[in-house]
UniProtKB/TrEMBL annotation:
Name assigned to this protein: SWIM zinc finger family protein
Key words of the record: Metal-binding, Zinc, Zinc-finger
Organism: Micromonospora echinofusca
Domain SWIM-type residues, every copy: 400-438
Pfam families noted in UniProt: SWIM
Native organism taxonomy: Bacteria, Bacillati, Actinomycetota, Actinomycetes, Micromonosporales
Domain of life: Bacteria
Amino acid sequence: MSAQQTYRYLGSSALRPDGLALSTSGGPAPNPRFFTGFLTTPQAAAVGLLAVAEVARTRYFRPVSPASLDPVVTGSRDRLRFESFSGCCGVYARLDALPDGLDGDVLAHGTTNVDVNNPLRQSLARVGGLDPLHLSVGPDDLTVSTMDGAVVEKKVPLPVRWLRGFAEVQVLAAAFEPRAEIPATEAAAFLRRLPTANDRSVLWAVPAGRTLRLTSRPVPGAVCLAGPGRLAALRGMLRFARTLRVYGPTVAPGSAPVPSTWELDTGALRLSLTLSPEPYRGFSGEGAALTALSGDDVTDDADLISALLAWDPTIDVDALATAAGIDATRVRGALAQLGTAGRVGYDVSEAAYFHRVMPYDAGRAERDNPRLVGARALLEAGAVERDATGATVRSGDGTYRVRLLPDGNLTCTCLWWAKHRGQRGPCKHALATRMATSDVREPA
């Protein structure tokens, strides 16, 4: 299934003798060019672009023929971001071309898909260390088809799973903290020690001096490494990198698998891979955004925040809260809502959100989240009976007990909770309970 996002182009993306030309849409003017200039580290940039494109073509769980999915590129003031999900939606890749990596003029801002087809991949693979790589993102003007001339309009089918993945990743990554930083030489040795690409084990990486050691069980300070072969896309960039940084949520002995981000930094570029908690799990089904989407005012807040978003490289949540006259929690809920349309991402290195230009559909949150729809239906039917320790919820022929834990989380007696234990977000009964009360909050 795909979501139709309509953009207008003058032509296809291509690597020409004078540089890499990427078609674009969005921004304040029709069909703008939001960057034109050189990449200061051309060979590393070419390798990074190939890595992002390769992730888009790969299904790490139950591999099949390569997917035909185009990475997304976003420009904002002083940087470019190239993003993709794997065909199974379990790996999120991003290449950030930072200010030191660009030598050109930022003319406008926008988001588009990048057509990295076989000829372009072959051309990028031939970029040598001394070869210049010129990047022109977007044509100079828009052509329209009328009786007086031609207009080129391209409809881009963006998979619904990608939109759901964008929404989930930014919520999950916002809870990540830096866990380790090791030199690139040690990173190369560490990656060489990892199991093969087909290994689906869940390991844990623990900082050990200048390197990382692997363990089969979580310990404080560890980072989950689920399906270690999924880090293969980093290997090409190792020879250009200075450091490998690793990010993840807080874990303790006995913790269930969690997502993590692995980032190579060259100084001018950052290439990162965010891995889902287990190889068979795609980000599109994690349910991390459900609680943030359940507020009564979230849609109106999203409309307000959407109007206030600027094209700064990162989004300041506190500044948005002040400008909008709402608290930071509601701003994060609004960002989660915008994330359902791919409008917002999260940069773990900057510990900040960033903005993409994509059409915003307020109804997408409901359509893409059946549990949210189910929770609202339970509320409308008066099926939630609150009490001092939680709630009793009538659903279909069953009655379920939702209990409030001391840490603010909710448990439920339904089969969904028994199967996932909260690792895929709340069930519809717990979500309805949280929506029905103002004093039951998510833990800080």
